[in-house]
Amino acid sequence: MIDLTALASRLPEGALISDADRMEKYRRDRANDPNAGVPLAVIRVESAQDVQTVVRFAAEHSLPIITRGAGSSLSGGSTAIDGCLVLSTERMTAIEVDPRTRTAVVQPGAMNADVKAAAAAHDLWYPPDPSSFEFCSIGGNLATNAGGLCCVKYGVTTDYVLGVDVVTADGELVELGGPRLKDVAGLPLTKLFVGSEGTLGIITRGVLRLIPAQRPAATLVATFAQLADACQTVQDITRGMRPSMLEFMDQVCINAVEDETAMELDRSAAAMLIIQSDEPGTHAGAEIDQIRIICEKNSATEVYATDDADEGEAFVQARRIAIPSVERKGAVLLEDVGVPIPQLGDLVLGIDAIARNRDVTVAVMAHAGDGNTHPLIVFDPADAEQLERAELAYGEIMDLAIELGGTITGEHGVGRLKQPWLKDYLSPQALALNQKIKDALDPQGILNPGVVFN
Amino acid sequence: MIDLTALASRLPEGALISDADRMEKYRRDRANDPNAGVPLAVIRVESAQDVQTVVRFAAEHSLPIITRGAGSSLSGGSTAIDGCLVLSTERMTAIEVDPRTRTAVVQPGAMNADVKAAAAAHDLWYPPDPSSFEFCSIGGNLATNAGGLCCVKYGVTTDYVLGVDVVTADGELVELGGPRLKDVAGLPLTKLFVGSEGTLGIITRGVLRLIPAQRPAATLVATFAQLADACQTVQDITRGMRPSMLEFMDQVCINAVEDETAMELDRSAAAMLIIQSDEPGTHAGAEIDQIRIICEKNSATEVYATDDADEGEAFVQARRIAIPSVERKGAVLLEDVGVPIPQLGDLVLGIDAIARNRDVTVAVMAHAGDGNTHPLIVFDPADAEQLERAELAYGEIMDLAIELGGTITGEHGVGRLKQPWLKDYLSPQALALNQKIKDALDPQGILNPGVVFN
Fold first, then answer.
1. What is the mean pLDDT of residues B28-43?
2. Is A168 in CB contact (< 8 Å) with chain B?
3. Same domain, A386 and A296
4. How confident is the model over A168-215, as pLDDT tens digits?
5. CATH code for position B171
6. Each residue's pLDDT tens digit, B264-320
């Protein structure tokens, strides 16, 4: 029997919870795993030292630690397992912006939106923008190397991380990097931890690079009668241009969003693209004009462009609420497969074929300019047979992505949900190399067991 | 006695050299280490399979392997040691550009300039631009996470690497990443190898991200009577703007370059800044106008701006030849220290004080917008006492950078030259973590021994 009072006594008052009712909300993340376990305790750490205390206790007793930010993981990255310690960063929310170095020093529990707001107060910008930015933590963003809508021009989370503090599995606190824009002294370990999904260490602080505030964007919305035409448009745009947003929604998404917003989207369209340019002054409009020509050349049924930032934002908002809108139609299995841009059409058409074949509804939205798609398989959780077909489709979509030279996860992470497919994607050599690093840094396997590694 | 004929027989005809005369040019890199060793053999590999053959042979016989691209390392990263195998990638120079995925697949021996040219043929751009881009290999760039002049706006090498193939110390060929713009499946191992200086594996292929061709730049050149004013100007610019180049040269550099070019640079100036904007259309000039105001506010003695791309390029060229121009003044010890931008002034003034105190000439050029400086300590190699003072100054400059919260190497790498200082920069915890990764991936220590790791 493990004596939690010894652990609690080394932590701030009230940091440790072991009451079943109060732990309930820490069991699941947004992947909503029905098999989520029951933790031994939940610890709401307040400092890196608290994290060290928890990790040392866990190491001593061989207890698994599941690190949890805002619990917004879509791949089960923070789903509890039986007998684990859930390490919650919710109380570590400090954000300090230094406009002179153009960096933000953040604690992991801060929300992405709050980091953005703190930067904006200095006319600066932290670009990475997962659709969930209002309710996902920056620690989770770092752990998964999160993406978002602006990545097509501005890159992903790792591109903005100059340093991290991590507590490793032996309880050491290691400071890596810092507010230096170039630094190649030693192995690039900051980059190793960003995207390691909490399997190598627990991030207790990040030093983020900020850039000047984004300019107001011009927006174009185009609809297509054929999926293939929309995908060809994406290919034609990305070949020579860098719009600041290039998003895709298929008919199921359009209708789900229209059900919520009644903004008069064309329910009959097979696909819609939402595209922005944030080039300066009249150059935004000029880039949008070029994009309009490409859309028209590819048989767009309707093209609407606006320089009005608020009007443009309404369309972006429509895209952002696509996932919640589809979620209202039933339970969903959310995919995150990505392919090289030339294969985007084959992927989208292939997903359509899988949906028909398995007789399930699949809504596809995509960060199209990155080739990163989010097919949502909608099913009735009460219908076991339908659930089975949905799960088959889920696997088949990953198989298809791999066949097309794509990845099983573009930005959500492997988590617990996609772990079984990792071996189909990575070569045995790459898997072995992953395992070597894991074994070297977490030989007991106490950090997020079941996530990424089996 | 090691039987090299067995190795040679498994390699292409003529790949292996063991003749002392022919090996001579493979002993040193641009760091010109007087203690460079004599290799057992030099192997000019032609394929990843050749690399595997060499690594397996080396592992079997516990032979050190020094990997070498173009030999342009400034930190001794490819300096031979006695009895090593030099693995030269000079014959692996293939470059394939795919404009549809906007990527280049490159072999490590290709020159950075050739990668740029291949991209340019498709109206695309590979941004990273070390000053040595015409004579440095892309494999070396990847190994060191090389920087350059455009990084202030466009980032460093790692930001453009989507995948690498590496041969690890056990002779396995591992494919990591690929032409997928977002991919978070598994640990971010591509990022671990980029910047690992050949100590974890040998890169045999890179998949590089390309972006649309750069727009023509507007250029501003400003001179200052006081070093501090030039550095304050850098701080004021970077606080809210993103010029596409922001370079610094001190008086010694200006004079060395003027000796070579007679382009009428102001020899009396304490410092000169060379700044570019590649914003579209008239916005480049507008950004340059804003920068002019900042320069004038900071007491610039002269400010000259031009929209003419060729004229601007002449100034950039002046900056690029600064290192060779200073090298004509004597032997040099080349530094690569970087600090957070607010500390740039303290660093530059501190270097000046060190130079006076040690009575040595130090020329300072800097990628100022990144806080990354290249002090060049000039000395007469025939004067042992002067060499000693130069070496003391070399260490003192690193000590100063560390004291100011900076790094001992911003973009050249630790190599062999800076290895003794790494322990002064990284914490014991960070060093231990570096060593854990090294031991896990190269337990025999055969890959670039003496580089980064002691």
1. 95
2. yes
3. yes
4. 999 999 999 999 999 999 999 999 999 999 999 999 999 999 999 999
5. 3.30.465.10
6. 999 999 999 999 999 999 999 999 999 999 999 999 999 999 999 999 999 999 999
Beta strands in B69-128 (DSSP E): 85-88, 95-98, 103-106, 124-125
pTM of the model: 0.97
Q: Is the pLDDT of residue B420 over 90?
A: yes
Residue B162 lies in a domain: yes
**Rounded to a whole number, what is the distance in Å from the CA of A188 to chain B's nearest CA?**
6
Q: What local confidence, expressed as pLDDT, does residue B190 receive?
A: 98
User: Could you report the per-residue pLDDT of A74-101, keeping only the tens digit for each?
Assistant: 999 999 999 999 999 999 999 999 999 9
Q: Does B165 touch chain A (CB under 8 A)?
A: no
The Cα of A84 is separated from the nearest Cα of chain B by a number of Å equal to: 23
Domain ends where: B382, B403, B424?
B403
Buried b vs exposed e over A281-295: b needs ≥16 C-beta within 10 Å? Answer: eebbbebbeebbebb
Q: Which of B124, B176, B184, B337 to mutate to test the interface with A (most CBs of A within 10 A)?
A: B184
What does the buried/exposed string (b/e) look like for B82-98 if buried means 16 or more CB atoms within 10 Å of the residue's CB? Answer: eebbbbbbbbbbebebb
For residues A299 and A357, membership in a common domain is answered with yes
Q: Which of A53, A172, A142 is nearest to A442 (CA)?
A: A172
pLDDT at A229 over 90: yes
pLDDT band, very low/low/confident/very high, at A432 (cuts 50, 70, 90): very high
| A44 and A171 inside one domain | no
pLDDT digits (tens, 9 = 90+) for A366-408: 999 999 999 999 999 899 999 999 999 999 999 999 999 999 9
Of A71, A88, A105, the residue at which a domain comes to its end is A88
B9 touches chain A (CB under 8 A): no
Q: Is A175 helix (H, G, I), strand (E, B) or coil?
A: strand
Residues of A in contact with B212 (CB under 8 A): 240-242
In a domain, residue B418? The reply is no
Residue range B249-258: mean pLDDT, rounded: 98
**pLDDT on residue A369:** 97
The span from the CA of A427 to the CA of A172, in Å, is 32
Q: Which of B176, B191, B414 has the CB atom closest to A192's CB atom?
A: B191
What's the CATH code of the domain at B376?
3.40.462.40
First to last CA, chain B: 26
Task: Name the packing angle between helices A428-441 and B428-441 (round to 10°).
Answer: 140
The span from the CA of B133 to the CA of B115, in Å, is 10
> β-strand B372-379 against B41-44: which pairing, if any?
unpaired
Q: What was the pLDDT predicted at B149?
A: 95
- Inter-residue contact B375 to B367 (CB < 8 Å): no
Q: Is there a single domain that holds both residue A334 and residue A256?
A: yes
Are residues A308 and A232 part of one domain? yes
- One domain, residues B324 and B190: no
Nearest by CB to residue A426, choosing from B144, B185, B439, is B185
Are B145 and A441 in contact (CB < 8 Å)? Answer: no
B321 with B268, same domain: the answer is yes
Domain range for B206 is 95-212
Q: What is the total count of domains within chain B?
A: 3
Q: Which of A402, A381, A403, A401 is nearest to A390 (CA)?
A: A381
Q: Which residues of B touch A418 (CB under 8 A)?
A: 185
Q: Distance, in angstroms, between B414 CA and closest chain A CA?
A: 6
Tell me, yes or no, whether A31 and A143 share the same domain: no
Q: Which of A181, A280, A406 is facing B279, going by the closest CB pair?
A: A280
B1 pLDDT higher than 90 = no
Disruptive mutation site among A184, A347, A402, A434 for chain B (greatest number of B CBs within 10 Å): A184
Confidence of residue A1 (pLDDT cuts 50, 70, 90): confident
Which chain B residue has the Cα nearest residue A191? B191
Whether B428 maps to a domain, the answer reads no
In a domain, residue B56? The reply is: yes
Q: Which residues of chain B from 183 to 212 reach within 8 Å of chain A, CB to CB?
A: 183-189, 191-192, 194-196, 199-200, 211-212
Residues A441 and A438: their CA atoms lie apart, in Å, by 5
Interval B32-46 mean pLDDT: 96
Question: In this predicted complex, what is the ipTM?
Answer: 0.97
CATH number, domain of A33, equals: 3.30.43.10
